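Chain A, query sequence.
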Amino acid sequence: MTGVLSRPRHLARLKADQVAARLTERSILCLPLGALEQHGPHLPLDTDTVIAERFSALLAERYGEHHDLWILPPVPYGLSHEHTWSPGTVSLDIAEFTGYLTRIVRGHITSTPARRLLVVNGRPEIHAGARETSLMLALASQDVDVLRLRKGWALPPVGHLHTRVLDRGVTWPWSTDAPELAVDGVMGSDPRSASAEFGEALLSSALRAAGDVLSAIAARHSRDRAQREAPCC
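Chain A, predicted structure.
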């Protein structure tokens, strides 16, 4: 899936007068959410953005015509406070992030006929482990360099992740430079076990699940429209 680079259903590629002509009330806008943050020594800062944008392109390739899906420009910044120890990381705070998203969504809803929006979150796991690395091997293998991981490198026991990060009721702050949680900014599963094949399998599963979500959105739209058009008495 590394060759998904065409942009036939990207809203930003349309001319202004084509927006009203090609989009309708049943169109679904797809907003990829990424980040600019460290992903260990083997993945680029924009990993989450790459995953979100390229998965959105796969969605459009498979379901674009059926659901009239249109991809919006990605949001390249997110909530990345746990990575601010690292060069290159840029983080918004919660108020900035929610305000930014609200303004973007409002802007697209008021400037297009579309009334439905799907968010694609580019963060597939804790951080830079086997799953995320596998997805990048499937989507952008040229950006992955596992040889940059130090020799003799070993991750801390996963139990620490649950008590500090994953368990119910756990909240931030925690940091990906904490030695009991991460090594070189990597948390969770060992990225050296990643493979493009595993990444392809993850993408296929996610695409099937996303198809169900899109169908549910379309069904809700049909019900809402039927209720609006039903006689009042």
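Residues 168 and 223 are 36 Å apart (CA to CA). The chain has a mean pLDDT of 91.
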